[in-house]
Specification:
D-Maltodextrin-Binding Protein, domain 2
Length: about 350
């Protein structure tokens, strides 16, 4: 483990040097990168002495599991993934109100998510949606590098675009909701019908297209820009751009599950995730390139620069609502996914 991480862990451990077995364990359903989940859990355990049982699943899968377990909750905390499904879960009574004492430490966009959800979820990071492309693949096939959403409709991109499935991946739901807000619903669905002709696969996980992109298994991916920066830093021949028309974004969230068996431990875990120390630790340790929500936690030097991205005014309250989210997902399933290619 790098020396910097060791020092941070030691500092966090000093906060509450309680025996690991002295308190009931916390069950965390984690919807961020698995490596991020594991490092976060290990550092929280060392900092607090509270044992964590962690289950890693995609955002859509986690939402479905929490809903299925509503009468007998097994999770205490839902950590990570775009805020839209957290907002839907909050509306459906699956999450508990919790006003962390650390809310005042957060950027306005993170505090706004908490307020819109009536404090049933809180923002932990921000990530802009973008286009990523493998420069080797496009060069070999003589395909021009895309700059805009419209470019991906070019027949030259046939079977070169990979996207996750919005019914299972929060990343793709942000894409769907962003297109609707950016283009208007009719134009957005017309765009996705045309784009469908160039899609090689709708993956279950939002991270899968990014990994396929880095390996050269697809020429183009639509995903969060910070995830694609990870591939670039690791040496993959990948570039990522914010489309010229504008783009949406996720506000990653953390929530207290209603009926949590260890609500006290869950609140401590949420407080920890909102802290600058934890956000800096995970970002530095794994080179995570999203924008942390705590004002005192610095973004990585290689993170996308928000000032250079044309962001839409993403409406989390509307597109995270149960009715709107279910309606759009059902429409996408019926009108886009079922189309032949």
């Amino acid at each position: 483990m790098p020396r910097g991480i060791t020092i941070l862990l030691a500092g966090l451990a000093a906060i509450a040097p309680t025996s690991l077995h002295a308190q009931a364990s916390v069950t965390v359903y984690c919807s961020i990168l698995e490596e991020q989940c594991r490092l976060g859990v290990a550092s929280f355990e060392q900092a607090t002495g509270i044992k964590v049982t962690m289950v890693r699943k995609s955002t859509g899968e986690t939402y479905a599991q929490i809903k299925a377990e509503a009468s007998n909750p097994r999770a205490d905390v839902w950590w990570g993934g775009p805020g839209d499904p957290h907002m839907q879960a909050a509306e459906e009574g699956l999450l508990e109100e919790y006003k962390s004492p650390r809310l005042g430490e957060l950027h306005d966009w993170a505090q706004r998510l908490a307020e819109q959800s009536r404090f049933r979820t809180s923002g932990i990071y921000l990530g802009a949606l973008g286009i990523g492309y493998n420069t080797d693949v496009l060069k070999r096939k003589g395909i021009p590098e895309p700059k805009c959403w419209a470019d991906l409709l070019d027949p030259k991109f046939k079977d070169e675009v990979q996207i996750s499935d919005p019914t299972s991946a929060g990343t793709a739901y942000v894409m769907l909701a962003s297109f609707v807000q950016l283009m208007g619903e009719d134009r957005a669905f017309d765009y996705m019908k045309k784009l469908h002709l160039n899609v090689n696969q709708y993956t279950k996980s939002g991270a899968a297209p990014v990994k396929a992109l880095g390996l050269g298994e697809t020429g183009v991916a639509i995903a969060f820009m910070h995830d694609m920066v990870t591939q670039i830093v690791q040496g993959a021949p990948v570039k990522t751009i914010a489309p010229c028309e504008g783009t949406g974004y996720e506000t990653g969230a953390v929530s207290l599950v209603k009926g949590a068996r260890n609500a006290a431990g869950a609140r401590r875990f949420i407080d920890w995730t909102l802290g600058a120390e934890a956000q800096a630790l995970v970002g530095a340790g794994l080179k995570i390139y999203s924008i942390p929500s705590n004002k005192a936690a610095p973004a990585h030097a290689d993170a996308p620069r928000l000032a250079e991205i044309k962001l839409i005014a993403y409406d989390s309250a509307k597109y995270g609502s149960s009715a709107e989210r279910n309606r759009l997902l059902k429409k996408w399933d019926a009108e886009i996914k079922s189309l032949p290619r």
